[in-house]
Amino acid sequence: MQTVELLDKREQVMRLFTANGNSDSSEIHEYLFTLARKICEASHVSSDIKLKQLVGKFDGSKLPEEPVEINTYLDYLAENVAAHSTHTSSPRFIGHMTSALPFFVQPLSQFITALNQNTVKTETAKACTPLERQTLAFMHRLVYDLPDEFYRRHTQAADSTLGIMVSGGTIGNITALWCARNVSLSSRNGFPGVEAAGLTAALKDYGYEGAVVIGSSLMHYSLEKTADLLGIGTCGLVRVATDKHNRMDVDALRRTVAECRARRLLIIAIIGIAGTTDVGSIDPLAEIAKLAQEEGIHFHVDAAWGGPLLFSRRYKHLLSGIEQADSVTIDGHKQLYLPLGVGILVFRNPFLAQAIQKQARYIVRATSIDLGKRALEGSRPANALLLHAALHLVGPQGYEFLIDEGIRKTRYFAGLLRTDPAFELLGEPEINILNYRYVPAPLRERVSTGNLSEDDLNFLDQFNEALQKTQRQAGRTFVSRTRVETPRYGAQRPLVALRAVLANPMTTKADLHAVLADQVDIARQIGFAVGQGKSAGR
Amino acid sequence: MQTVELLDKREQVMRLFTANGNSDSSEIHEYLFTLARKICEASHVSSDIKLKQLVGKFDGSKLPEEPVEINTYLDYLAENVAAHSTHTSSPRFIGHMTSALPFFVQPLSQFITALNQNTVKTETAKACTPLERQTLAFMHRLVYDLPDEFYRRHTQAADSTLGIMVSGGTIGNITALWCARNVSLSSRNGFPGVEAAGLTAALKDYGYEGAVVIGSSLMHYSLEKTADLLGIGTCGLVRVATDKHNRMDVDALRRTVAECRARRLLIIAIIGIAGTTDVGSIDPLAEIAKLAQEEGIHFHVDAAWGGPLLFSRRYKHLLSGIEQADSVTIDGHKQLYLPLGVGILVFRNPFLAQAIQKQARYIVRATSIDLGKRALEGSRPANALLLHAALHLVGPQGYEFLIDEGIRKTRYFAGLLRTDPAFELLGEPEINILNYRYVPAPLRERVSTGNLSEDDLNFLDQFNEALQKTQRQAGRTFVSRTRVETPRYGAQRPLVALRAVLANPMTTKADLHAVLADQVDIARQIGFAVGQGKSAGR
């Protein structure tokens, strides 16, 4: 009896491991392929199920004792997961940094899973190790464009690290500042350096009272994680004011640097942002680079969003100075139109990452080209293949088109908002992120004359929050929501803003009109409730 | 003229974004699907191309100016990448922690890419947010098995964090110790805590002279990264000796704890290992847990490899005590048979991760159930879906079978090695990782009598290194290589070992015999060269 059970169990499991290529497998393939296509082609941006009700579908915590039949599970997926997933590739989902993706990333993802290469070491990623190094050289060239000789020397050399593939921009930023911290407090005169001795001993040996990272007030929250993790504390993340275009004020930066020096604080790095998450603004990278060089400070550019502007002959000047950065983060899953999980960090100095090198006895030995030797992460998938493919199939020209298109559409959208009294454009967009708000009729006059009371401002905040929540719940169109400082209302009074990110090449002018029409409808519908001080949505 | 060019470029790119579902797309699908199947069914473990020659295929660093035709690129992929990738799913590739995978992960990976949910926030992952929380509850139950009431309260609650999905075990370990550090130096009496004030100020406020993490000498190298990152330095990673079974010596641990206390060092955490990477040994978790509790120290278990033993009624007792850990890391891409990129961290205390909480203005607001609020990473794919599916389709029973099978085969393999004088088993395997070495004929007598000189030991080290390199290069079978300490030769003389990891359900007894036969052949072939002091391979 027990043997039969055991055999059944064995057969059941072995079928899952051997079914590849048989009819079972093709069927599931077809099912999921069709389901995915249906989702990608759907016209809504999400179902209108209430979050509370949806959560109720996932509140169980006990696993089924018996394995579930695969068809049963697929139906479950379709009904509960697919039906209520966010349609992030919808042309009317213009609120976050997701977009439609080129279709080849779908079969390629499956291929990467089938190959199951672990890029931590060459022994489990024979071809994908040099391929990843080559991909990083492509990205390094995009940013730094150094002579051929440089790339011949470093692209595949065991002692060089042109860059690191990471799971996302957050890990990119953390890794960059980890390198910067370790280099600025490295071993000397018998002191073993911060890597070995820790931060307290290192600051003491170097005669510092503390350590900081400096950036603008619009730094991504990953920098807070970084400051916390690296032991300098979030108080060590110094935020310099921005100018009226949301760019770092370099005079303020210069004063901050001088103050830190006077207080004997180590400045681990200065951060420049190429495309702030809130508003898309780009810091004056060349000026910051100059200052950083004069002061001998590591200059890191967070170009998670804006990096791919380098492909655009028309807009690459906005990133001028990035080629002087010591390290640059770019996200593949943002404006390189790749799936989630593809981040890139590149270093100007190919030996910088030696400051974080770690080894193990069974892998990543000192003389190998193993990628895991200098990286925050350990085992990793061969996602570099997605980037490698896209750089060939979309190509520099394709990316140029995508960047130019997004900015063109953003300008069109800004034009719509500027001429429609129902909306107020909150700041001029620099690239393809744009903030605005809805203005109910009774306030339009006062908005146009700049004559809003604090009560009016509060009402507008409440109204726009309710508007965004209702719009999200209805699921026909989507923009996100943030708080922004504007020149008009001052840094002391950030405003609730509707935030549009225009990166999806499938978004048409008609889609932009549809988003605004949807908001006008919703505004009409919720007008009374907010007037009563109530807020819609959850 | 320029317009025509522009139109061409537009058409070319737009075709990539709209081809999904048309014949182009199906063709590529079919091509990659067939290619992947061919790889998965290949009998060798890698091509025998020399690494230097392979690297030469990837030394270019200039992108093509014109986009590449997709069929050209697919042929390139087949010829250069697929042909020379490591066949990690081969039943004779038994040297690393990769295996054949259940077939459904392939179409599911593609589905996840198609859905493109960003699980950092509910707005871009409506259903996948509660689904990920549920998946973490399943894993939490597996480890802690708390009352139903606990899961009803915490699974979907905004203030609770039963666990965090991470890109891999390294991020899991870092995140766990980040939480532990922040909790042990939290805000009090006007002091803002380590998160805000940094490590130096925190240690001073709490009156510590420094901070350490304690684990056995077999800790994974991710803990070195952790100690470095968190600012305590790798010197702050205290390595306690292991006993003859490669398990942490708890008496030595007790002495180390007392010494650290005497030196006024904060002990951030004690690490227990459930399945060391080198030899698969499991620390005495219950004893460590008891000590950690008595001393009020965070107890973290690195169960990246061994965690799924909890599914086995026969072997789960080996992990006894894990249910008292404060945090546990498990890798999905190891013994849960999922693709790379699926790591799991669970916490006993669902409020622990509040110690690392960060927010932003546009997402992850305080009251939301957004997953990005308490995590090291930011934007992330919905890989929880892979784990959710596997927990249903393979199920607890299927995992039990896989675990039991691996251990059964390891014992069989150990038996082969024990009875074959050409091999020496280096330590008894505790689970499914096993170390051994080849012994050339002239040394067999001295090995069996334990009468080896230092010269003999050096020769055996050299010989086995050459053997493993030659075997890897030939590409018919594969085991990895490490250095292990053995009771027989003492902790002072680690030996070069061949390392087998037996987790692939497709590996048969015949495969194990084939691996050994291949090694005997290779040993015969390289015997002379090593005798001359030369080493094969790179």
Describe this structure in words.
- Two copies of one chain form a homodimer.
- Chain A has 538 residues and is α/β, with parallel strands linked by helices.
- Chain A folds into four domains: 2-87, PLP-dependent transferase-like; 118-168 and 339-393, no CATH class; 188-331, Type I PLP-dependent aspartate aminotransferase-like (Major domain) (Aspartate Aminotransferase, domain 2); 398-531, Aspartate Aminotransferase, domain 1.
- Helix content of chain A is 44%, strand content 12%.
- In chain A, the strands form two sheets. A seven-stranded mixed β-sheet of chain A has the order 1-7-6-5-4-2-3, with helices on both faces. Chain A has a four-stranded antiparallel β-sheet with strand order 8-9-11-10, with helices on one face.
- The longest helix of chain A has 25 residues, at 395-419.
- The radius of gyration of chain A is 26 Å and the shape is globular.
- Chain A starts with a helix and ends in a 7-residue tail after the last helix.
- The interface between A and B is large, with 182 and 182 residues.
Quickly describe the structure.
Chain A is an alpha/beta fold.
Feature tags:
disordered C terminus, alpha/beta, 18 helices, 538 residues, Aspartate Aminotransferase, domain 2, 4-stranded antiparallel β-sheet, PLP-dependent transferase-like, 12% strand, 4 domains, globular, 7-stranded mixed β-sheet, homodimer
Assembly form of the protein: homodimer
Query: How much strand content do the residues of chain A show?
Result: 5-15%
The helix tally of chain A amounts to: 18
Runs of chain A in which pLDDT lies below 50 for 5 or more consecutive residues are 532-538
Give the class-level CATH name of the largest domain in chain A.
Alpha Beta
* Largest sheet: spatial strand order of chain A: 1-7-6-5-4-2-3
Whole-number tally of structural domains of chain A: 4
Q: Give the overall shape of chain A, derived from the CA principal axes.
A: globular
Number of DSSP strands of chain A? 11
Please name the CATH architecture of the largest domain in chain A.
3-Layer(aba) Sandwich
Radius of gyration of chain A: 26 Å
Structural class of chain A: alpha/beta
Separation, N- and C-terminal Cα atoms of chain A: 54 Å
Q: Which fold name corresponds to the CATH topology of the largest domain in chain A?
A: Aspartate Aminotransferase, domain 2
Mean pLDDT of chain A: 93
Order of helices and strands of chain A: HHHHHHHEHHHEHEHEHEEEHHEEHHEEH
CATH superfamily of the largest domain in chain A: Type I PLP-dependent aspartate aminotransferase-like (Major domain)
